[in-house]
């Protein structure tokens, strides 16, 4: 039987990565949309060639890899350019994700994506799990992890879907406001529940 797909998302600093690791420990096949987004623009890919043609050689590093920072600064203030890039990349990323998930051996597979809701990737999933955290904790965790300022974290929070938007799409919500041992036991509990589902629905 084909595995059903669980979409896993949450804002910056919500603890998505920790939750993803615990699911992998349970033997669940998992793909990260961020990794897929990197695969589609590796040197030699048609997408990278199109990006260079559109934005110029300035978006390449000396070794031929995409210079993400340079590209980000070009599209950050420019909605039209960002839309052009998303129109090119989102279908390709979706394809990569689908091919990868199709190889899953586990009863269900997980798509981890910080932009699950915004990018429309939630349509690839039969069920959505949102990792939620109080905003002050998100800011604190992200600052520690990325060594950035509270302002930068706030800016990223604003660019991501609001908690309300994400929670509207959620079938399950895991409020990650305690310690890792508790988080791990919650993931085990969810995993056992997911194993009882057919096609992601009770």
From TrEMBL:
Q: Which positions bind ATP? A: 13-18
Output one GO MF annotation: ATP binding
A GO BP annotation: coenzyme A biosynthetic process
| Keyword hit for tRNA-binding | no
Write down a Pfam family by its short name. CoaE
Report the family membership: Belongs to the CoaE family.
Write down what this protein is called: Dephospho-CoA kinase
Species: Pseudomonas borbori
Native organism taxonomy: Bacteria, Pseudomonadati, Pseudomonadota, Gammaproteobacteria, Pseudomonadales
Gene name for this UniProt entry:
coaE
């Amino acid at each position: 039987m084909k595995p059903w797909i669980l979409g896993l998302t949450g804002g910056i600093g919500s603890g998505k990565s920790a939750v993803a690791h615990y699911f992998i420990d349970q033997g669940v096949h998992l793909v990260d949309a961020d990794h897929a987004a990197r695969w589609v623009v590796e040197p030699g890919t048609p997408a990278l060639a199109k990006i260079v043609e559109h934005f110029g050689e300035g978006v390449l590093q000396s070794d031929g890899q995409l210079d993400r920072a340079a590209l980000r600064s070009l599209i950050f203030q420019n909605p039209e350019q960002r839309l052009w890039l998303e129109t090119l990349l989102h279908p390709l990323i979706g394809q990569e994700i689908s091919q990868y998930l199709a190889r899953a051996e586990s009863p269900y597979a997980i798509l981890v994506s910080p932009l699950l809701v915004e990018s429309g990737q939630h349509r690839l999933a039969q069920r959505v799990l949102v990792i939620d955290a109080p905003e002050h904790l998100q800011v604190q965790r992200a600052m520690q992890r990325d060594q950035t300022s509270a302002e930068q974290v706030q800016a990223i929070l604003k660019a991501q879907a609001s908690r309300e938007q994400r929670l509207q799409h959620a079938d399950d919500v895991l409020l990650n406001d305690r310690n890792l041992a508790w988080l791990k036991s919650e993931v085990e509990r969810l995993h056992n529940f997911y194993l009882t589902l057919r096609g992601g629905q009770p």
